[in-house]
Amino acid sequence: MEPVIIPPASYTILGIPLMLLFIIIPIIGIALFTFIIARRMQPLVKAAPDNRLDQLGLRLFNMLKFAVAQYKQPRYMLAGVLHIVIFAGFCILSLRSITLVIVGIKAGYTLPLFDTWIGTIYNVLKDIAATAVLVAVVVAAIRRGIYKPERYKVPEKYGKDHTAEAIFVLAMIGGLMIADMFFEGSDLAAHMNKGLETHYFLFPFTGTWFVTYALTLCSDATLQFFHIFFYTVHELIFFSFLNFLPLGKHFHVITSMFNVLFMKLNKGSVKPVKCGVSDDQLDDLESFGVKEFEDFTWKHVLDFYSCADCGRCADQCPANHVGRPLAPRFVTIKCRDFCFDKYPLIGASVDKGPLIGSILSEDEIWSCTTCGACEEECPLLIEYIDKFVDIRRGMVDEGMVPQSLQKPLNALGKRGNPYGKMEKKRGDWTKPLIKDEGYECKVLSGKKADSAEILFFADSITSYDDRIQEIGQSSFRILKACGIDFGILGPAEKDSGHEVRRFGEEMLFQDLKEKNTKAIIDSGVKRIITADPHALNALKKDYANLPPVEHVSEFLYKMIQEGKVEFNPLENQSDIYVYHDPCYLGRHNLIYDPPRLVLDAIPGLKRVEMERSRDRSFCCGGGGLMLFYEPVEETRMGKERVQMAADVGATVIVTACPFCMVNIEDGIKTSGLEGKVSAIDLAELVDQQLVK
Amino acid sequence: MQIFAYIINKDGKADDTALELALAAKKLNSDAQVTAIIAGSGIDNVCQEVSAAYNEIWKIDNAALAYPDGEIMGKILPKLLPDNAILLMAHEYLAMDMAPGLAVRTDSAYIADVTDIEGMDGTTGKFVRQEFSGMVSTHNTCDMSGGAVVTVRPGVFASEETPSVGGSVVDKSGDVDIPETNRKYLETVEAEVGDVDISTSEILVSVGRGIEEEDNIEIIQELAEAMGADYSCSRPIVDAKWMEKSRQVGTSGKTVKPKVYMALGISGAFQHLGGIKGSPFMIAVNKNPKAPIFQVADIGVEGDILDIVPELTEKVKEMKG
Amino acid sequence: MEILVCVKRVPDTSENEIEVNSEGSDIERDDLVYSINEWDNYAVEEAIQIVDKVGGSVTVMAIGDEESEEIIRREMAMGANNGILLSDDAFEKSDGRGLATILKAAVDKGNYDLILTGAQSDTGAAQTGAMLAAMLDQPFASLVNLIEVKDDSTLKIGREIDGGNQEMHEIKLPCVLSIQTGINEPRYVGIRGIRKVASVEIPTMGASDLGIDPATLGESGAKTKTLDYFVPEIGEGAEMIEGDTDEVVEKLVEILKSKGGIK
Questions:
Q1: Residue C227 and residue B101: Cβ atoms within 8 Å?
Q2: Helices (H), B81-205
Q3: Quick one: pLDDT at residue B165?
Q4: Residue A1: its pLDDT value, please?
Q5: Which residue of A has its CA nearest to B240?
Q6: Is pLDDT of A102 > 60?
Q7: Which of A18, B88, B109, C144 has the fewest Cβ atoms within 10 angstroms?
Q8: A588 is in which domain, residue-wise?
Q9: CB contact under 8 A, A507 and C192
Q10: B124: helix, coil or strand?
């Protein structure tokens, strides 16, 4: 295209080439950006180590799935689509941005091969993309500024509202789109006014198309002005925006790819106390857990940088929902701001003291049930559970444990169960089965140990709680009916320590793990079955070198598939059943279908689904030590969940976790729905319906 | 033989235990002459009140003794009491301040919180005590040849008897010098007044640890409301901050004298029972059939209050129509 | 401030079933778990908090055998600076007066501004602190639920009395205080903390180290003795109502009505 308007690279004002400006702005912009990024790297360097370079193949795949393909975005459809459009637009327009920067120095510059048909096609793409982005940005701004969706709200205690910043960024992005349209359009219009060929395919109804045709009404001088003016505007916005990114939530634009690349791969497990320190070296550590900011790992700091403040985590968080003082989003935002304050861009780092008591409160951190809803939702794969466990480790190390948790923890240390009941009574839940029902029960430990192929790991609540013993007994009968050769550990079994670990008492967990591992290995079993998803998760993810572990629902599902079990039809077929996904069976262990298929195999059983099911399941309130904690809350998770079941017309809630049973039954009582809604464990229902 | 009893009095009235100590002394030795020691300011009324049960009343009337002070009395009594004296006191907060130290200062034996007195074998006293929060009892002997201080659990010697011994009052005020102590009483801070004064309630629905969680407290409040009663609790509930201190029934809480008392999920430790006077009609519900509460209650139910209470509330509401 | 806290290793009442043994000579001690007497733990926490504010150190002292070292260590893991074990066969079966004598001899070997004990322990006698104070001729207060340091030589304290009221006193140092539960919220001591102090040396003193004549202690020196343990017969007790929840509730309502329990 012969130049009709003077391009920016050739323009002069009072004899001074404007190109100088377009060299200086990028230089300053990039230099400043480099400086800011270097400053932002400092906390990462000072943070605790972590190994995130394993399984590179899987990591790259995840990067493509979550970062590039934006896999999680559509879970909130409108915002998701808007974001995908803006993101895709950014990706496409990245080439245009590079071109534009160089164009200010070398007139008429195009990227290699872009002076061919490739360039023409690209220009069409970029025009469509820019238009889509502009539309998306306007819709987003209206949504943010006028409709103000609930999850963006900032409660007073967390500071000022973030809407202004959001609108500002949207305005910047819109500005970039518009500036480019005017820059391009002014040149095209000038050509069109002179009747010259542009070799540019203006795709109809794109922004550039509109602007170009509108600009044909302007004089040459005006077009020349617009061309230079909007180029300069574009340059300024571009480099300001670039340097604005690391200052707040838009840092995620830069860090998101990395955050996903380095994401946590072993779901449901808990990070070790310190990377590189093995379990038997733990006693030598000076300090445990996160007390100061630098105790976080570099990946956790990267998480703080990468938060887009979208609020999806807090929206799904059951603790937040019931009014506990915890919202994951704000834990991240507060830590990020703390980091930015402690490590300012200019000047030395400022000592801000420990996290607990300044930006984080003890109750805030104890409120988390580790359900994993936040991590499931976050489009940037930010981790939360490991952080809370680490902060809890720090609090335990300093003795800051709520009185309500001290008693069960002491009991776990002394008796191996949180109830303080005697070890020798741990196997007593099998007594009614032996005495009244004539079963034989093998005890796989102790002086007169039996041996068996399979271990049924009961864990503490099933062993000692009157109500939950019934679930253990049902599981027992089912295994017997299937002809399984199994036994229990009895008095030698200790609490799996699942919550002990997640509540920060790492050394007590190690103690329980050591004892259980020895008892299990000594018993010589080849497989482990449990009805307790927390025990399942502990044995699978926290313990090592154990025989394979499965949940009773997985076992049942296999039996059904192999045709080895049959069910009697339900007596009362007017009940409507609904299955509640336990957090540690569903989200943490991806066991969603087996329990459902077991239920569907029962003749006459009518089943519905709650809105929040599968990986969106709503935590019942938590298990293990969480049953002892006294949170400050407005209502209870169990109550909310029961209401969700009632809302879809269910009359029977089926659970597959002893803690869910406790919380759901409690929720039924306190909602006054006794008689209208009841709860039954999967094992109890199967035991009831099994043809024996 | 002469047995002394230290009488607690406040605001011009003798404590309930005043008469109990006289009976305790008789149980120790039926022939004993029992002397009451009363210290305070303006205590003529108290001395009169108590004279029905004691052979002699030693009055120590001094303005400095207006507020009962264990440190001061702990130094006065060794000079006042004869050698090898046997002194009884009620086992409560004044005794805990004063009695053990007094035994050391008079070089006599000490036995605390006896729940029964079996008598004397020569100079050896035979007593029953409890240990481990009342879970077990012990038989004990005490060599009282060099004197002894014995504290008695309040309420174990309570009786409907109205004695008429009619002893004389001996004014010992002049024999006593008020000693210097390194502890000075400042004031008594009253417990926060709650919205309800349970010490005047006629019907009480009381809850203990069996309620398990704070959120379940509302089932107790609903039952109380349905019954037209007030609700109260035992100490652990207040320690956990699930109810205000003003609703605590017990020796360190409020003393109540209702007509009907529902003890729900309460084990029946003596510190709780110590706050219940007047022998109300008591209904106890507890998961543990061996809970001490079932020894004192009139009606007992072995069960889970979380199951029984909501249903009971429903039935009461139904009945009231 | 140099603070001494006297502590005792006792069976944990919440995690044990306390029963009399078959001979009636003691409680059944197989299968019992032991821990620090709950009142003493509150006292140690209070001492640590005072020292955190005004400086000084906390010494924890127990009379017992080497098993008592376990609880001394635990309190050191909690934050106490020093631990001392008083152990001697001659100390066994001493009565309260005997125990106080042993403690007094140990106190005389040190230099303490403040001595704390728990208000009571498993025997429920609530006597050790008061006796120790009398032997040392120091002022004493029992059932303390508040301590404020006014200056080097004075404390303001609160005592828990009846009706939920609190008696306020000013007391001069050195003094002895017995501490009531609820005075503070004791901090948690984790397994890690306990492991860190597992090999700390705990100095031990016996009768000769303390300069006490063994004849004044133990069973022979005791004026108060325990003969046996028993569980009293439950007399009549409550009339128990049987049946399922519905039946029980029906009967209860009837009874309540007849006794004027429903207004």
A1: no
A2: 93-105
A3: 82
A4: 52
A5: A404
A6: yes
A7: A18
A8: 576-689
A9: yes
A10: strand
- Which ranges of C83-227 does DSSP label H, i.e. alpha helix? 96-108, 128-136, 191-196, 207-210, 218-221
Phi, psi of C232 (to 5 degrees): -65, 150
Residue A571 lies in a domain: no
- In order, the DSSP letters of A407-424 are HHHHHHHHHSSTT---GG
Q: Once rounded to an integer, what is the mean pLDDT over residues A132-138?
A: 97
Which two tokens mark B116?
């029964």
A388 and A444 within one domain:
no
Q: Is residue B61 within 8 Å of B77, Cβ to Cβ?
A: no
**Could you tell me the CATH number of the domain that includes residue A358?**
1.10.1060
Identity of the amino acid at B184: K
Instruction: Check whether residue A550 and residue A581 sit in a common domain.
Output: no
pTM of the model: 0.88
Question: Is B240 in contact with A670 (Cβ distance < 8 A)?
Answer: no
Query: pLDDT band for position B296 (50/70/90)?
Result: confident
The reply to whether A592 and A554 lie within a common domain is: no
Burial C213-232 (b: 16+ CB within 10 A, else e): eeebbbeebbbbbbeebeee
State how many domains chain A has. Answer: 4
Residue A94 and residue A218 share a domain: yes
Name the pairing type of β-strands A442-443 and A486-488: parallel
Q: Could you tell me if A198 lies within 8 Å of chain B, comparing CB atoms? A: no
Residues A545, A671 within the same domain: no
Q: Within this chain, do residues A143 and A218 fall inside the same structural domain, yes or no?
A: yes
Q: Does residue B126 surpass a pLDDT of 70?
A: yes
**DSSP H helices in A5-71:** 19-46, 56-62
Is the same domain home to A514 and A490? yes
For residues A398 and A66, give the distance between their C-alpha atoms in angstroms, rounded to a whole number.
38
Whether the pLDDT of residue C18 is over 70: the answer is yes
Distance CA C103, CA C127 (A): 13
What's at C59, amino acid-wise? T
Nearest CA in chain C to A407: C14
How does pLDDT run across B72-116, given as a tens digit for each residue? 999 999 999 999 999 999 998 899 999 999 999 999 999 999 999
Identify whether the C-beta of residue A120 lies closer than 8 Å to the C-beta of residue A107: no
Domains of chain B, first to last: 2-175 (3.40.50.620), 198-320 (3.40.50.1220)
Q: Which pair of structure tokens corresponds to residue B162?
A: 């109205």
Q: Using the structure block, give the residue that is written with the tokens 């050509």.
A: A191
Q: Are residues A131 and A222 in the same domain?
A: yes
Tell me the nearest-neighbour CA distance from C198 into chain A, angstroms: 11
C-proximal residues of B, 205-224, CB under 8 Å: none
Report the DSSP beta bridge partners of residue C168. Answer: B187, C158
Cβ-count burial of A480 within 10 angstroms (0-12 exposed, 13-18 middle, 19+ buried)? middle
Per DSSP, B249 falls in state: B
Instruction: Please count the CA atoms within 13 angstroms of the CA of B123 that sit on its side-chain side.
Output: 12
A436, exposed or middle or buried, with CB in 10 Å at 0-12, 13-18, 19+? exposed
In this prediction, residue B133 carries a pLDDT of: 78
Site of tokens 């306990």: C194
Residues of A in contact with B213 (CB under 8 A): 630
Q: C188 vs A405: CB contact, 8 Å cut-off?
A: yes
Q: Is B306 close to A630, i.e. CB distance below 8 A?
A: no
Domains of chain C: 2-221 (3.40.50.620)
